[in-house]
């Protein structure tokens, strides 16, 4: 097979590397030092896309991701409806009316949220749980048992059990368990049918072309299942064969990053030996630019061992070293939180926003709003909205130079709205659009992002979630100008703490603290 054909199917960085050395040694030694003969590429295949997949693979992958989201989110909504219907039906049986008192309605709402949260904690909505019937049954049983205990304990603690009908509670719990169980039986059947049709395969990329990658490919080929390898990548292309079996080497880490932004995949498995700790560290730092899950393969000696707390992909044990906590279905919960709260805030604050827009237009010529390019989720650029706080005009670097105290570019109205953070209110529109979240790492201007991305490790991991109007760093005093690298490093550390420890309660805490902090802090100007 000609080298030219291979060049056409790899990424731009890989193509440049191959072009620099047309005498690529296809018998280069692998990690073990043994010669790895290159397997000829297939002669008849459809033109490859940027992932080396046949046309239509991108649409199919989007279908797979959407199908899993639909199953998980639909199951959560169905469980919420089942819990509410069970409570209302039991109430009607006991009291011959469906009109609950406000106290009983609050109890039902709190119990519903608590039950969904406990089921989520036990993994009842996790993809791997839904794939495995025994794990699904176990997670559902333990989740319902724990949720019942938690609801009863809280009810007893606040004295609610003494004032309500025990018969109503017993009927409600019984109906709830039955309806939720039916939901999960149906969901399990849907997943089983879709898997049997090959429609829920997980797409993975292998980073590192060596004996370990060859072993993983053999396992996947032998077991089949729900795994589809979309390509191999390695930064040392001159030492790699152009393919392992029927799987082609698609390029370097840079090519993988470019492909991830065009067509996200489910996970990247790093197959480098653990002795190559420097290379692994560099790869993880590069890959932090995207929210993809990254796994390390353990030493070959423990592949068959019964080691807890590791996951298996086609029988291969892997340790997860990077994964966003705010993934599906909790990402769906956070998105619902954003849309509901942002819509309510827009309605409540619209008179203030109209007044500010009028004041800005009257004080100085120019629009009331302005847009600026910022990096957001998955390192994608978007337009952020703000109230204009500076004079318009040909001011050098006005779009990227950070504002400073007594900055002559800032108007009188601008000084007030920057100090009180009212200039950020139009970003509620960004939240509704889906570019931002109410709470998350603050987005930085494009030049600042590129600068600090080179200086601070894991900086780009901030983009594993949507950027926020406010964040954990801001309520901890890291708001305003970052005139030193250390200040930016502290801000990034707080952003990563937020991502690793996210919860709905943490978001609510940050929103409440934001209202208090902006009146007492003087770091914004």
- Biggest β-sheet description: 8 strands, mixed
The whole-number mean of residue pLDDT values reads: 78
Report the strand count.
12
- For the largest sheet, list the strands in their spatial order: 3-4-2-1-5-6-8-7
Rg on CA atoms, Å: 27 Å
Global shape: flat
| Beta-strand content estimate | 5-15%
Helical run tally: 17
- The SSE string, one letter per element, is HHHHHHHEHEEEHEHEEEHEEHHEHEHHH
Q: Share of helix among residues? A: 40-55%
If you had to describe this structure to a student in words, what would you say it looks like?
The chain crosses the membrane at residues 75-93, 105-127, 139-161, 167-191, 339-360. It is found in: Membrane. Residues 334-516 form the Bacterial sugar transferase domain. It is a multi-pass membrane protein. The chain is α/β, with parallel strands linked by helices. It has 3 domains: 60-196, no CATH class; 201-322, NAD(P)-binding Rossmann-like Domain (Rossmann fold, 3-Layer(aba) Sandwich); 330-520, no CATH class. The chain contains 17 helices and 12 strands. An 8-stranded mixed beta sheet has the order 3-4-2-1-5-6-8-7. It has a two-stranded antiparallel ribbon with strand order 9-10. Strand 3 (243-244) and strand 4 form a beta hairpin. Helix 11 (330-363) packs antiparallel against helix 13. The longest helix has 39 residues, at 57-95. The protein is flat. The termini are far apart. The relative contact order is 0.08. Mean pLDDT is 78; it is low at 1-10, 16-61 and 395-399.
């Amino acid at each position: 097979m000609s080298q030219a054909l291979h060049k056409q199917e790899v990424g731009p960085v890989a193509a440049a590397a191959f072009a620099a050395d047309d005498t690529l040694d296809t018998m280069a030694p692998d990690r073990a030092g043994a010669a790895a003969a290159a397997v000829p590429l297939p002669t008849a295949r459809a033109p490859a896309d940027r992932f080396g997949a046949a046309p239509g693979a991108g649409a199919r992958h989007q279908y797979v991701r959407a199908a899993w989201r639909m199953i998980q989110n639909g199951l959560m909504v169905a469980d919420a409806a089942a819990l509410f219907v069970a409570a209302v039906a039991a109430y009607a049986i006991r009291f011959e009316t469906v009109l609950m008192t406000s106290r009983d309605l609050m109890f039902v709402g709190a119990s519903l949220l608590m039950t969904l949260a406990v089921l989520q904690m036990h993994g009842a909505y996790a993809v791997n749980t839904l794939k495995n019937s025994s794990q699904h049954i176990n997670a559902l049983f333990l989740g319902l048992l724990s949720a019942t205990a938690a609801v009863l304990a809280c009810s007893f603690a606040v004295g609610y059990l003494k004032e309500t009908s025990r018969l109503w509670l017993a009927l409600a719990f019984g109906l709830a368990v039955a309806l939720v169980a039916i939901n999960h039986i149906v969901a399990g059947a849907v997943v089983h049918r879709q898997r049997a049709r090959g429609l829920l395969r997980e797409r993975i990329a292998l980073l590192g072309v060596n004996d370990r990658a060859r072993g993983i490919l053999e396992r996947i080929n032998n077991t089949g299942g729900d795994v589809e390898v979309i390509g191999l990548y390695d930064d040392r292309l001159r030492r790699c064969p152009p393919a392992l079996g029927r799987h082609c080497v698609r390029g370097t880490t840079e090519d993988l990053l470019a492909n991830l932004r065009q067509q996200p995949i489910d996970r990247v498995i790093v197959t480098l030996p653990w002795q190559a700790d420097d290379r692994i560290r560099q790869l993880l730092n590069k890959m932090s630019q995207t929210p993809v899950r990254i796994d390390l393969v353990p030493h070959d000696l423990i592949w068959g061992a019964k080691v807890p707390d590791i996951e298996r992909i086609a029988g291969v044990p892997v340790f997860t070293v990077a994964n966003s906590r705010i993934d599906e279905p909790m990402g769906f919960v956070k998105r619902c939180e954003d849309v509901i709260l942002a819509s309510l805030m827009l309605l409540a604050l619209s008179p203030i926003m109209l007044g500010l827009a009028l004041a800005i237009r009257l004080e100085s010529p120019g629009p009331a709003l302005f847009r600026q390019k910022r990096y957001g989720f998955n390192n994608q650029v978007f337009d952020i909205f703000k109230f204009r706080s500076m004079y318009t005009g040909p001011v050098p670097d006005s779009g990227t130079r950070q504002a400073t105290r007594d900055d002559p570019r800032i108007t009188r109205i601008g000084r007030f709205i920057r100090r009180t953070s009212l200039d950020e209110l139009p970003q509620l529109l960004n939240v509704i659009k889906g570019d931002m979240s109410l709470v998350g790492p603050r987005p930085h201007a494009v030049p600042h992002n590129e600068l600090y991305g080179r200086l601070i490790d894991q900086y780009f991991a901030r983009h594993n979630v949507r950027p926020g109007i406010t964040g954990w760093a801001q309520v901890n005093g890291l708001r305003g100008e970052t005139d030193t690298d250390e200040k930016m490093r502290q801000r990034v550390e707080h952003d990563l703490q937020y991502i690793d420890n996210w919860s709905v309660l943490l978001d609510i805490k940050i929103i409440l603290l934001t209202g208090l902090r902006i009146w007492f802090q003087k770091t914004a100007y």
